[in-house]
Amino acid sequence: MIGAGVGGLAAAARLAAQGHTVTLVEQAARVGGKLGLETVDGFAFDTGPSLVTMPDELRELFSATGSSASDAGVTLTRLPIACRYTFPDGVTLDLPGEVEQIPAALDAALGQGRGAQWTRFLERSRRIWDLTETPFLRSPISMSTMVRLARKPGDVRAVAPWQSLRGVGSKYLDDPRLRMLLDRYATYTGSDPRTAPAALVTVPYAEQAFGSWYIDGGLYRLAQALADRCATLGVELRLNTRVDEITCGADGVAGVRLDDGSMIDAETVVANADAHQVYDNLLGRRHRGVAAARRRLRRTTRSLSGFVLLLAVDDPPADQAHHHVMFTEDYDAEFDSVFGRRGRARPVERPTIYISAPTDPAIVPGPDTGAWFVLVNAPPHDPDNGTDWDAPGLSERYADSIVEQMAERGVDIRSRIRHRRIISPADLERRTMTPGGSIYGTSSNSATAAFLRPSNRSPVPGLYLVGGSSHPGGGLPLVIMSAKIVADMIGHAGA
């Protein structure tokens, strides 16, 4: 097993529970991958996902490996306010965490009738969810899935594979703020709402139907709990261990070669690594089917990356929401910048700003302090054809700009920042070995994106891919689903 991100940890635990002997190697000094942790002077920051949706996926994972989430030290708390949204016109919406309360909140903040619009939209989203959940999210992706769907014209019309996320939203939502709210969900997959498929309307449905959750003590607790679960199940975990090559024989995978030259023989290899890293760097070009996999990857668009500020805050505002999105005045300009339309990919001058500000005493050194995670969409690190995030002074200047814009939009903490750390796309690339620091691997910027995303079963017999860059995609619940798909493919030892 290569990579101890959530996908690798979840797959390792499942496979060990099935009776397999599992060795898990991780190039970093700690587990978690993109679900990272950084500590500064007693402040603890989650440096990756900051929200849990579809909590039953997490609970099922622990149950399937012989424990429970609570027994493993993962305590889930449902947030009464899923997110605060501040729109360019100054209107603020506190979106309730209970779906039944959302229509009234929309009417109160945005005007009568907005709740009914969103309800009709969610009804369409639920219909698409019901049609796609099992065949597209919980099963290996295949063209036969689309063939089966095509046999029912009504289902095809409901899923509308020819429409974009924004296109289907425009049929239900006439308030530009509601459309902006919907556009935001495309970024959950690192995508552009103008080209992302209509099927992504299932993202807001899942979040609102199943709730927004926080793990007490921070989301990194999940990585720690999964590592503990792996240890209990007998998984051998090797940290600070880098894989240089996936070795293959005539009949398929043979194991891995480490950077110190030693070998680990294996009948099966599961790679929790970016698919570009696997196919371009870890597999030799002589292996059958690898060239075709590389060609498919070249036809995809890399997902957006993120520019992150970790802010240790003294005396934070008492009324600050746990999750807060402050929208840009021009969302299209933001996506143009990030994806390099109308010029090279470049930092967004006035980006949408996301703040995660949990009020959790376990992550701060004392009362009246806060550990804030601030994120803006950013183009991947690409010195040759886009943005060189290592250019002298760029990250510091951009961080200053973001803090100033937070103040302009009503969250002024400039005089309260005790410490500031920056994580640029270039830093993400180095930390996670993900090309350019692309958070989700490939974006969903086309109707065929789901079929171009690398499948869990590679063309090399015995080699499987798990995690956010492979099917079914990025985000904690989908990565956990990915691990289950792979474990089910490999099956029980001796079966």
Automatic annotation (TrEMBL):
GO terms for molecular function: oxidoreductase activity. InterPro entries: Amino_oxidase (IPR002937), Carotenoid/retinoid_OxRdtase (IPR014105), FAD/NAD-bd_sf (IPR036188). It comes from the Bacteria. Pathway: Carotenoid biosynthesis. Keywords: Carotenoid biosynthesis, Oxidoreductase. GO terms for biological process: carotenoid biosynthetic process. Residues 7-488 form the Amine oxidase domain. Coiled coil: none annotated. Belongs to the carotenoid/retinoid oxidoreductase family. NCBIfam families: crtI_fam. This is Phytoene desaturase. It comes from Rhodococcoides trifolii.
